[in-house]
C-alpha cells in the first residue's frame, strides 16, 4: 500500500539543499510528501550532489512504495514517502560523505520498521568536520536511543575502517522494532565520573594510535582518574584504501549523561597533522562540550528532540546546552511536519535550555498492519 499525495496543498515545499536529510527523514515518518526547489541554483555546479542523490536512493531502498522525481538540472525534486518494511539491506555509500551521513537518516527510522532492521554500509567510516564517524555513532548515538527503550539487539559493528578520501570501510547497523517510545525526564547532568576513548589508525604506523592516547592523557589525567583509552589498529584488507587516524572521546556522568568529541586526520600531504595535534584538539573539544553543560551532547540535540516528540502522549523534558542553529531549524521543520511545539526555558547564567514537549503518541502498530 503506497500513500498517494493528494492535492498540491498536501506537499510541503522547501528551498535550498540545507537540512535535506532531516526533511527526508520527517517526510518518511509523517507520511507527507515534500518538494525541494532552488538546490544550489546559484552555484557553478548546480543541483544535487552525487552523495545527495545516493541518499535519496537509500531512502527509496529502505522504504516500500516511495517515489522520487528529480528535475533534469537536479535543482529540484519531489519525494513521496512509502512504508518501512525493515529487513536486510546492503548499500554502497558515496565517498563524498562518510557512512555517518547516511546513518543519521536510518537510525531514527529503524525502530519503526515492520521487521527488525539490518543494513551493511560500505564507504568512508569517518571524515573530519562534516559528519559523525562510526565510532561516535556507536559510543554516543546508540546509548541515547537506550533512553527511549530501544535496547535489545541495537548495535553498530565496524567490520573495516575506511579513511577519507577513498574509503573502503564497512559497518553493519542492526536495530530492533518498538511499539512506542518511552517518555523521558532528564534534567540532572551530574558530575563527570569516567572518560572513555578510541584511538584508531589505518595504513599508518601503529605507534600513531599510542601517541594519541598519551597526548590525550597528558590533559585528561588532571581532571579525573577513571580514564580508559583503547587503541584500535587495522591492518591489511580491513584498513581501507587511504591512510588516516583519529581519536574519539566520550565522557559519562553520574546520571549517565554523555558528551563527546572527535578529531580525525585530514588528507593533506603538504601539511600533515601529528597524532599529538589531533589528540590535543579532541581533548579540548571534549572539555568545551562538557563546559557547555546540558545532559545531551550538542550533536544529538535534534535526535533527542525528535524522539521526545514521537513518544507517548505525555510530557518529556531534557536539559540541553545552548541550542545549535541546526536544532533550531529542526524545531521549525517539526512544526511543519507534525505540528509539534517545543517549550524552551533558558537559564541566563549557564546558557542551558530546558526543552519540553508533549509526545504525539507515534505508534508502530500501523506498520505491522500494513
TrEMBL record:
UniProt similarity note: Belongs to the RNA 3'-terminal cyclase family. Type 2 subfamily.
GO CC term, one of those recorded: nucleolus
InterPro entries registered for this protein in UniProt: RNA3'-term_phos_cycl_insert, RNA3'_phos_cyclase_dom, RNA3'_phos_cyclase_dom_sf, RNA3'_term_phos_cyc, RNA3'_term_phos_cyc_type_2, RNA3'P_cycl/enolpyr_Trfase_a/b, RPTC_insert
Alphabetized GO MF terms: RNA endonuclease activity
RNA 3'-terminal phosphate cyclase insert domain: residues covered: 187-291
Name this protein carries in UniProt: 18S rRNA biogenesis protein RCL1
Coiled coil: none
Any one biological process term the GO annotation gives: endonucleolytic cleavage of tricistronic rRNA transcript (SSU-rRNA, 5.8S rRNA, LSU-rRNA)
Amino acid at each position: 500500500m503506497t500513500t498517494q499525495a493528494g492535492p498540491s496543498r498536501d506537499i510541503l515545499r522547501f528551498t535550498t539543499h540545507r537540512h535535506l536529510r532531516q526533511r527526508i527523514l520527517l517526510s518518511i515518518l509523517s507520511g507527507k510528501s515534500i518538494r525541494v526547489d532552488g538546490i544550489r541554483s546559484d552555484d557553478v555546479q548546480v543541483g544535487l550532489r552525487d552523495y545527495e542523490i545516493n541518499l535519496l536512493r537509500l531512502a527509496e531502498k529502505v522504504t516500500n512504495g516511495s517515489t522520487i522525481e528529480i528535475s533534469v538540472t537536479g535543482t529540484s525534486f519531489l519525494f513521496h514517502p512509502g512504508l518501512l518494511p525493515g529487513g536486510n539491506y546492503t548499500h554502497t555509500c558515496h565517498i563524498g560523505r562518510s557512512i555517518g551521513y547516511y546513518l543519521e537518516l536510518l537510525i531514527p527510522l529503524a525502530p519503526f520498521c515492520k521487521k527488525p532492521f539490518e543494513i551493511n554500509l560500505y564507504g568512508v567510516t569517518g571524515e573530519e568536520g562534516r559528519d559523525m564517524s562510526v565510532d561516535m555513532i556507536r559510543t554516543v548515538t546508540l546509548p541515547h536511543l537506550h533512553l527511549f527503550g530501544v535496547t535489545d539487539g541495537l548495535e553498530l559493528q565496524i567490520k573495516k575502517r575506511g579513511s577519507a578520501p577513498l574509503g573502503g570501510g564497512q559497518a553493519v547497523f542492526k536495530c530492533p522494532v518498538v511499539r512506542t517510545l518511552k517518555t523521558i525526564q532528564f534534567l540532572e547532568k551530574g558530575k563527570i565520573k569516567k572518560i572513555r576513548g578510541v584511538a584508531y589508525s589505518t595504513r599508518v604506523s601503529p605507534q600513531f594510535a599510542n601517541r594519541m592516547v598519551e597526548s590525550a592523557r597528558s590533559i585528561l589525567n588532571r581532571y579525573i582518574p577513571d580514564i580508559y583509552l583503547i587503541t584500535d589498529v587495522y591492518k591489511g584488507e580491513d584498513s581501507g584504501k587511504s591512510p588516516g587516524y583519529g581519536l574519539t572521546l566520550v565522557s559519562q556522568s553520574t546520571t549517565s549523561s554523555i558528551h563527546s568529541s572527535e578529531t580525525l586526520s585530514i588528507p593533506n600531504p603538504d601539511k600533515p597533522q601529528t597524532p599529538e595535534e589531533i589528540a590535543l584538539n579532541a581533548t579540548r573539544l571534549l572539555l568545551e562540550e562538557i563546559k557547555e553543560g546540558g545532559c545531551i551532547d550538542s550533536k544529538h540535540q535534534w535526535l533527542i528532540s525528535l524522539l521526545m516528540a514521537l513518544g507517548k502522549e505525555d510530557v518529556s523534558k531534557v536539559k540541553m546546552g545552548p541550542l545549535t542553529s541546526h536544532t533550531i531549524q529542526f524545531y521549525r521543520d517539526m512544526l511543519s511536519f507534525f505540528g509539534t511545539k517545543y517549550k524552551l526555558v533558558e537559564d541566563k547564567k549557564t546558557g542551558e535550555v530546558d526543552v519540553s514537549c508533549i509526545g504525539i503518541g507515534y505508534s508502530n502498530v500501523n506498520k505491522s498492519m500494513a
